[in-house]
Design brief:
Helix content is about 20%, strand content about 40%. It is of the alpha+beta class. It has one domain (about 30-240): outer membrane lipoprotein receptor (LolB), chain A (Clam), CATH 2.50.20.
């Protein structure tokens, strides 16, 4: 009993050290770091990043399953983007040249194209809302990234520091009504996002989406055809409704432990 009480006292002391900062200061610090990250990211006209992503789903019998993908994003503001995402079930490429949006299912050897004149922000919104296709870390690529991320935040904390892939980062935590999300921002002259975690509180089991950025380059010289799309040999052009198996999570498929 004495050992248990001592352990509880020690745990209380450690927890007290973690939360000693005033709530107002935590909130202000978190917003300040987030704003510096947003200002830096949006100031970059051209960037190339590599990422790994994990998305969790809950089965009907409440088993949590995780699906993992990797990819790259090449962006040239304000209206050009090329992104790839390869996982165990899909291999997808997205190309946007400011006028036309192309989504290619490489594993299907089929693609769809839609007219989408405008800038990257409007394309990302249309991709998500109308076509049901998610671009990994899309929130971090928007021209108004700070406003988009901070909207509906009810609590903000500067947790401290952490290390992502050997890089020291500021660790931030935010809460909305339905989600908790965390962000690790590189410390130093280039405050780029290194890790982004979204927890869905409204879903049983609180599944998470995790994005880890492995490489971030701004010294990229893009070729004239960098955002041009050429269909692979034998590829079929189809309606977006026919290009259904391009999500990170396979539709209706939950792998068994033996697979």
């Amino acid at each position: 009993m004495q050992r248990k009480c001592a352990a509880l006292v020690l745990l209380g002391a450690v927890f007290g050290l973690l939360v000693h900062s005033p709530a107002g200061a935590e909130d202000a610090d978190a917003r300040k770091v987030l704003k510096s990250m947003a200002d830096y990211v949006t100031s970059q006209k051209t960037l190339l990043l590599s990422f790994d992503s994990d998305i969790e789903v809950m089965t009907q019998d409440l088993q949590k399953i995780q699906f993992t993908s990797s990819g790259q994003v090449l962006l040239s503001r304000p209206d050009k983007l090329r992104a790839t995402r390869t996982g165990g079930y899909t291999d997808v490429e997205l190309v946007f040249d400011g006028k036309t949006l192309t989504v290619l299912g490489k594993n299907l050897n089929a693609y769809t194209q839609v007219d989408a004149p405008g800038e990257i922000d409007s394309m990302i919104g249309r991709l998500r809302d109308e076509l049901g296709v998610a671009l990994p870390g899309a929130d971090l690529l928007l021209s108004r990234v700070y406003d988009e991320l901070i909207t509906d935040v009810i609590d903000a904390k500067h947790i401290g520091q952490g290390v992502i892939d050997g890089v020291e980062c500021e660790h931030l935590a935010f809460r909305n009504e339905e989600t908790d999300w965390q962000l690790w921002v590189e410390i130093g002259a280039r405050p780029i996002p290194r890790k982004y975690v979204i927890t869905s509180k409204a879903v049983t089991g609180a599944p998470q989406y995790t994005l880890r950025i492995r490489d971030w380059r701004t010294d990229v010289e893009t070729k004239a055809d960098a955002f041009a799309f050429s269909p692979p040999a034998g590829a079929s052009k189809v309606a977006i409704s026919a290009l259904s198996d391009i999500d990170e999570v396979p539709h209706g498929v939950v792998p068994s432990a033996k697979r």
